[in-house]
Amino acid sequence: MKYQFDKVVDRRNTNSLKWDVTENELPMWVADMDFETAPEIIDALHTRVNHGVFGYNIIPDEWNRAYQDWWSRRHHFEIESEWMIFATGVVPILSSVVRKLTTPGENVLIQTPVYNIFFNSILNNGRNVLESPLHYENGEYSIDFADLEEKLANPQTSMMILCNPHNPVGKIWSREELARIGELCKKYNVIVVSDEIHCDLTAPDKEYIPFAAVSETCKDISVTCIAPTKAFNIAGLQSAAAVVPNPFLRHKVWRGLNTDEVAEPNSFAIQVAVAAFTQGEDWLNELREYVQENKYMVRDFLAENIPEFQIISYDVTYLLWIDCSKITENSLELAKFLRKETGLFLTAGTAYGESGRHFLRLNIACPKATLEDGLKRLLEGVRRFQNR
Q1: CA contacts within 13 A on the Cβ side of 78
Q2: Helix %, strand %, coil % for the chain, to 5?
Q3: I want to staple 158 with a disulfide (CB 3.0 to 4.6 A). Which of 6, 106, 171, 325 is the partner?
Q4: What is the reported pLDDT for 332?
């Protein structure tokens, strides 16, 4: 490989959220990679730092073009420049559009288990979380469309936050599934906000489908949240975009983001996005290969040592959703035990809704040496847990 994904970077004492742990602990929880970002992005940052002046910033046309070319080439979706609005992150977009496009006391529908911050963006703004749990059977997740339609039909339901691809279950929704969601939401006058931040982290042989690319209906009723931050490990640089084809919705979203003061870039946000999308493709392709190798490494280790654990998907993200129901009905108890006994810090599935109570989420975006350490701790912890 051209890039050094085996390099172990010491992230302790760097104000890292992920690594704000005790000396003996190994964090494999939050969606934050332990790899250095692409050298091309680091070079762009050096160039900007060397300029030495960090005043207020505009959003140049090259930022729009970088996104447009990337989504056209990688995801077969033609984004018009006027559809795009800069924002400091996907979560700020989510919270802002919840405030702007719904009213207090209305329902915002989510498909659980799902990214836990969705709950925060809804509840913190005085709206109601309405869950439509995904159907889980024989290691596969699917949409319960009967339940989904019933809840979308509720007159108090005004928005659906879609996770596409879906975190944490690792599901890439098909064109048919997305089209059906779009038709139901159109039927019941529900706006779709599609969080697509994990879209560039599919397995090397997989592709995702942007919700707004599926049909004119999907395009007309949606706000899409995209960013280079997850795929290129630059979340701390605060750079994202809202894509809103419908001009009426777009004005509302633009007004909401500006009212909330999350539509102005810092002195590095534009440069890193442009560098990622114009120069980072080779790095990303190698990253996806490396992450897939790590997934198979975990698969083989579990098959030999903890066959009771089942990995649900290898298709997308660097987060493995692991069914541990053959060992415990309480993944929170297991996660706490693993951290206390071995220092391995994983996320219990209950963080993503009650339907995740039988699952653990494991972040495998790290050098193989780190992953080996984590797997050894996992095996030791599970054995102790079973022998209590």
Answers
A1: 2
A2: 45, 15, 40
A3: 106
A4: 96
* 133 and 200 belong to one structural domain: yes
Q: Which of 346, 343, 117, 345 is closest to 235 using CA atoms?
A: 117
Q: Name residue, tokens 């209305």.
A: 106
Domain membership of residue 309 as a residue range: 26-37+281-386
Residue 286 C-alpha from the chain's centroid: 19
Give residue 1's pLDDT. Answer: 79
User: Which amino acid is residue 356, in one-letter code?
Assistant: G
Cα-to-chain-centroid distance, residue 180: 22
> Are 179 and 314 within one domain?
no
Q: Are residues 74 and 218 in the same domain?
A: yes
Query: What is the pairing mode between strands 84-87 and 107-110?
Result: unpaired
Condensed to tens digits (0 to 9), the pLDDT of residues 229-248 reads 999 999 999 999 999 999 99
Percent of the chain at pLDDT exceeding 70: 100
Q: What are phi and psi of 73, to 5 degrees?
A: -75, -45
**The pLDDT of residue 388 is above 90:** no
Strand residues in the chain grouped as ranges (E): 26-27, 84-87, 107-110, 128-131, 135-137, 140-142, 157-163, 191-195, 222-226, 240-243, 310-311, 319-323, 344-345, 347-348, 359-363
Relative to beta strand 222-226, strand 191-195 is parallel
Sheet holding 107-110, edge to edge: 84-87, 240-243, 222-226, 191-195, 157-163, 107-110, 128-131
Question: How far is residue 351 CA from its own chain's centroid?
Answer: 14
Query: 125 and 100 in contact (C-beta within 8 Å)?
Result: no
CB 259 within 8 A of CB 274: no
Give pLDDT tens digits for 360-383: 999 999 999 999 999 999 999 999
What's the structural domain count of the chain?
Answer: 2
